Amino acid sequence: MSLNLRVNINRLAIKLLQRIGMLEAPESLHFLSFNDGLGVQFNVRFYRDIISKQADRDNVGNNHYTQCLLFCVDHYKCLQNPEHEFLVLQFSHWKTGSSATAALCVDRTVDIPTHSHASGLLTPSSSKYPARDTVYLIGCASPLNIDSHLTARFKSYRRISSLSFNSVRPSVLQVADLLVLVNQQDLNYDILCTQCYWWSGTVCKSLERLFRGEEEVFDPDNRGHFGPIILMQPLEDDISNICAKFWPAYKETEKQVADLQLQHQAERAQILEQGRSQRQPEIDERDRQIEERNRQIAELQHQAERARQPEIDERDRRIAELVAELERMRTQRTPAIN
Length: 338
Fold this sequence. Notes:
The protein is α+β, with helices and mostly antiparallel strands. It has helices at 3-19, 44-51, 143-154, 172-185, 196-211, 236-278, 280-307, 309-333, and strands spanning 41-43, 70-78, 85-92, 101-110, 128-140, 157-164, 188-190, 214-217, 225-226, 229-230. Helices cover 48% and strands 18% of the residues. A hairpin with an 8-residue loop joins strand 3 (85-92) and strand 4.
């Protein structure tokens, strides 16, 4: 079976399962798809900047990228040369009780036009070039969909390790901030130092340290290897530096998100006030009509009471006569006292 045919069959199967209700087709975000990711990719800095500026169109302007939490990071290695390494991150849905999940693929390649974006390594003579650190939207984090996208992009690969988060789970926005810090730690792609091996390992080790992740390694553990040669492992100085910068950097991002939320609320209140101002004549007319109806009802009740007044007066007069007659009869039956 050809690669393209296999990919298309996988995607059709996912759509079919969603259509017949065996797979949930949940609400998605623009930059975190819980359905089909369509293979869209972004530079890590652009990705962080754009998701930090998202505000949901609700009353409070929530940023759902702060509510989708990371629960797993899988570290992969391509089986064919140049043995490129990359990560797949899986996130939960922001809605409580939803079982939907979304996946992102992140990796480092080289940003020069003479080499393929999927070729994670160059040659030692290449020296340094600007690194291309990207976020790739896979979509639904089902094994079928992940395999479909990874096969289309990398052909053959194996999972080397898996990092899970239980007690503390970072959000998409926190992960995006971390990816930017790893990118800023070294902006260049160096075949011997800061290539895809360094990138993947540094991201994993930083996440593990910051959020108490639990790592499971699968044999053979050949992370950072090109064949039998060990090219690069994450450096302790790099990890320590990134972790030291993370929380102050994220505090700034949080402030931007909070400011945007306040701006959203103020804009919404202004729109509502403007809408009320534009409709004020209509509202005043409606209130006048209600008041007029209330007045008419009160008048009709008063008229009904006035119409019945002669009848009420006659009834009261008759009752008074009967009471007087009764009193006379009682007086006549009482013997005189001498």
